[in-house]
Please model this.
Amino acid sequence: MKYKDLSISVYLFLILFIYSSLYAKTDISINLMSGYNFINEEQTENNFENFPNRFFSKNREIIPTGFAIVNTLGYPNGISKIRRFPHLEFGIAAGGGLLEYTRKDDYKDDNPVIPFGGFNGGLHIGTGINNKFDITFKLFFFSLDWISSLAAEHEGYGETTYYKIEIDESYAMSVGFKLRYNMFNRLIIRPMFFNFGGVSLNLGFDYMKGSIDSLFTFSDRQNVDLDVGTIDVVSYASGEGSLEWNILSITPEALVYFDLFSVISLYTGPSVSLNFGYVNFDFEATGNFIAQTGSPVEGDIGDVELKSTNYLVADIIIPKWIVGIEIDIYSVKLQLEGSTILTSMNDSFTAQIGIRTQF
Model:
């Protein structure tokens, strides 16, 4: 009983430690031109800080978790085991994932939520350790500039707020290995038509790091009390920032395989990723404090400086259900694998394609 209580205490401590390290803070300084004065400067700046702080607070989990769901991609395998060395498999795979894509329809001033996801891949090679165990390694280092050209801008509009993120330069590195235990061997049921392909219990270890340099824009429109009256003002700031991430995932899987017509392998099963990682999201911006038409004064009435520092932590547990198909064309195997995130099955997924050979 004492050991059980100790285990629970350690677990709760780790959870509190991880989530106490979450940090998101944006500071805005407004410098009015000569002749204008705030009624309450501190309160006004706090009011304009609410939007970027709310933006990061609402998305503090989805941004790092979007990277975590793709961390395990890069080495699909449509056969339950690789025979002992010198038998090998090698190939390449690439894919991506998207977390809660329906959030884009829920964006509002008081609920600035966004979907998030990423890309990953791998050059992989594997071999059998013995008649039951095999191991596969993956490695990928790549620039995301070509991806940036496909999805260079991300925008969100509310009634009075607006944000824009433009990807500039980026890179990522992904490494990992997966141990597989062949629990049940292949069983012939109807030769050439349908066979039981076996069951494998897997344990993957994956690490991914990267950075993205971006241009950021935040805009917010509010009524502000000055000594000359109540002014309809837009705070507009743009600048440069960086997003850096480090994610480690430990992923047990249990996959069942079926063979159709000797050339098609189907597999499916559950997967649970245990994630340890974070995202640093920092940027600085400058801009204008602009009085709108119809106010007692109009045009630029000041400058805005914005600094934001955000430390975000990925979800610790991500349960998934995997479905894959591998088609054997002579000695080349074409692969397609997808998964749904069980905590948000209707709008969260990963998908990857690959080509490999095994001999």
